[in-house]
Amino acid sequence: MPAEPTLVAHHFDTLEQQREADTLGMWVFLATEVMVFGALFTGYAAYRGTHAEEFEAASRHLNVLIGGVNTIVLLTSSLTMALSVHATRVGRQRRLVTCLVLTALLGTMFMGFKAVEYYIDYRDNLVPGLAFRTSDWTERGLRAENVRFVQLFLLFYYIMTGLHALHLTVGIGLLIVLAVLAARGRFGPEYYMPVEVSGLYWHFVDVVWIFLLPLLYLIGTHTSLY
Amino acid sequence: MSERIVPQRTYYLVFLLLIALTVLTVGMSFVHLGAWHGVLGLVIAVCKALLVILFFMHVLYSSRLTWLVLLASLLWLAILLALTLADFLTRSWLAY
């Protein structure tokens, strides 16, 4: 007989088995996410391997300052997410709500910086099809027929950061739901798995960004922060 | 995750390491390192990802089944990368 019939679903024997299944379910989902982002990383690697010069030239014109600051914002949000899990497990209700709201706010701050960055990219003629001049790049020493690989890099940049931002938006939504439920006292030392598995998702999105930073912003030697 | 509660001190320590590595990797992009930028950037990223996965995502304290799913996803990613790059990066070896 399960010890707490209200917490253990009928198809599980114990609370511990149920938690194990919750964790496993999220990890299997994250494994599929690894393949989603993995396909983009693979495409990126193939073209960076064959067109390193154009990728480097394009990367130097991205905004390292905003990219770096956003990395720190996202890492801080991962800390507050981890502290949320801790607060649930030790039963500190108000601290849990505070940490969840802080995490959502940091995520929103990242999105705000990203929006400003996209605008700056647009202003700097770094958007293929919308604001882009081949002559900018031939003046910087690239051959005219190779400028399309600068465009290819920029498309990788928009699609990879865009898909990452989409995941972050879903994460912020999750956090708002969690914060409302936490404020109503739904979570505690016995029932903490929704916070734990949402945390797994949030940290995964952070890990994707950890790889996007060096691959998109930090190729080659930079001379200016922005 | 196991029944163990990870102490807050661990989280703060991991966070400080992550920030230090971020400052290091951004700082290094202003030093002339030639082809090493790519390699060192990835090495630092892997270190940061490991810190997040092992401590923030509690894999260090998780069951073998969780480890298995994680390692399987990395294995499949490795197959995807290895077979694709085996094609793309060796095309220039043939003169045509």
Sum up the structure in keywords.
heterodimer, A: 226 residues, mainly alpha, two-stranded antiparallel sheet, 2 strands, 2% strand, elongated, B: 96 residues
Question: How would you describe this protein?
Answer:
The complex is a heterodimer of chains A (226) and B (96). The radius of gyration of chain A is 21 Å and the shape is elongated. Chain A has 226 residues and is an all-alpha fold. Chain A has seven helices and two strands. In chain A, 75% of the residues lie in helices and 2% in strands. In chain A, strands 1-2 form a two-stranded antiparallel ribbon. The longest helix of chain B has 25 residues, at 64-88. Chain B is mostly helical and 96 residues long. Chain B has helices at residues 8-28, 36-56, 64-88. In chain B, helix 1 (8-28) runs antiparallel to helix 2 (36-56). Chain B is built from three helices and no strands. Helix content of chain B is 70%, strand content 0%. Chain B starts with 7 loop residues before the first helix and ends in an 8-residue tail after the last helix.
Oligomer: heterodimer
Largest interface: chains, residues each: A-B, 54 and 54 residues
Number of helices of chain A: 7
> Treating each run of at least 4 consecutive H or I residues as one helix, how many helices of chain B?
3
> What radius of gyration of chain B results from the CA coordinates?
18 Å
SS-based class of chain B: mainly alpha
Unreliable segments of 5+ consecutive residues of chain A: none
Beta-strand portion of chain B reads under 5%
- Biggest sheet of chain A, in brief? 2 strands, antiparallel
The overall average pLDDT of chain A, rounded, is: 94
**SSE pattern of chain B:** HHH
Low-confidence stretches of chain B: none
In what range is the share of β-strand residues of chain A?
under 5%
From the alpha-carbon coordinates, what is the Rg of chain A to the nearest angstrom?
Answer: 21 Å
Instruction: Describe the strand arrangement of the main beta sheet of chain A, using strand numbers.
Output: 1-2
| Range of helix content of chain B | 55-70%
Instruction: Round the mean pLDDT of chain B to the nearest integer and report it.
Output: 92
Total count of strands of chain B: 0
Strand count of chain A: 2
Calculate the terminal CA-CA distance of chain A, rounded to whole Å.
62 Å
Alpha-beta content class of chain A: mainly alpha
